[in-house]
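Narrative of activities, Objective 1.

The group set out to show that a structural description can be obtained from nothing but a protein's sequence at a throughput compatible with the screening campaign. Below is one input-output pair from the validation batch, recorded exactly as produced.
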Amino acid sequence: MISKTMETAISRQINRELYSAYLYLAMSGYFETASMKGFAKWMRLQAKEEQMHAMKLYDYVFTRGGRVTLADIEAPKSKWASAGKVFEETYAHEQKVTAMINGLVDLAKKENDHATFEMLQWFVKEQVEEEEQAFEILNQIKIVGIFPGTCSVWTTSLASANRSKSFFLSILNQVTGYPMHSVLIIDDQQDLLDVTRLFLERYGEMNVDTANTAKEALAKMNERDFDALVLDFDLPDISGIEFLKIVRAKGDTIPIIMFTGVGRENTAIEALNNGADFFLKKGEDPNAQFRNMVHMIKQAVERRSMGGRSALRRGSLRKPSPFFPNRHMPLIARVK
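Output recorded for this entry:
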């Protein structure tokens, strides 16, 4: 049972996390009006992540038999002088949030609340990453040259600054909104889809679309090109293996990462034998598995591009598939 003191403190932190979501959404709106689509998208993802933080705390309180008290959320400002000023405020705000989390940790110690102390360690680690990222982007803005009154990237800064090519490509991606890789995730677990999308877009610098079924995925692949697919083994309409067969039968060499909770060795062998580039098991450490996913996607795309891109893309999947003979798609029986 959580103490009343701890319950009140976490309720207050939930309010602060929701304010953070409001603040970052306001910043996203600022970047939208300034036609800085990359930054706008990044801030929108930040807002969604802050909501997730709030819900993590919210659920925890009820798990411990407590009750959350919700309060009014302060309205954030909506105008800034420049992109640099936005990220100066972002960095300062994340430092404040870190201090708040540290205060909760200290309170948990004082209350001898070991469960809450353990839960808060996730937030402690998260804040290290939040501060680091905000600080790094702020420095990138200063180096590249986005100052009040201009949204341009100065080529002289690119030439003279002591930074790698990939570093500046990531900056251009943030400023212009052009992604490095386009990925389609196919999974019927919506919560997992949202989290995976958030991680790949934020940490992998990827443009991510999602589909809940094989049929929806094939339709999206007809409409646009993707650089890679992340595929679940168990889908509502057909199995991931059958989906692999459809794509490879059309001659499409798009990289495919099989991401599944089915961890049997024969499953991995079957997936790889039918054209999957990598097999990744859903595990208990999300950070590790998503970082592995980013690495696998980039490695597979690079490997495939070195071998020559397939000419068969959108057109290759436009012919009717024997697995989907009509509008009313029958479920194909399979063993999970």
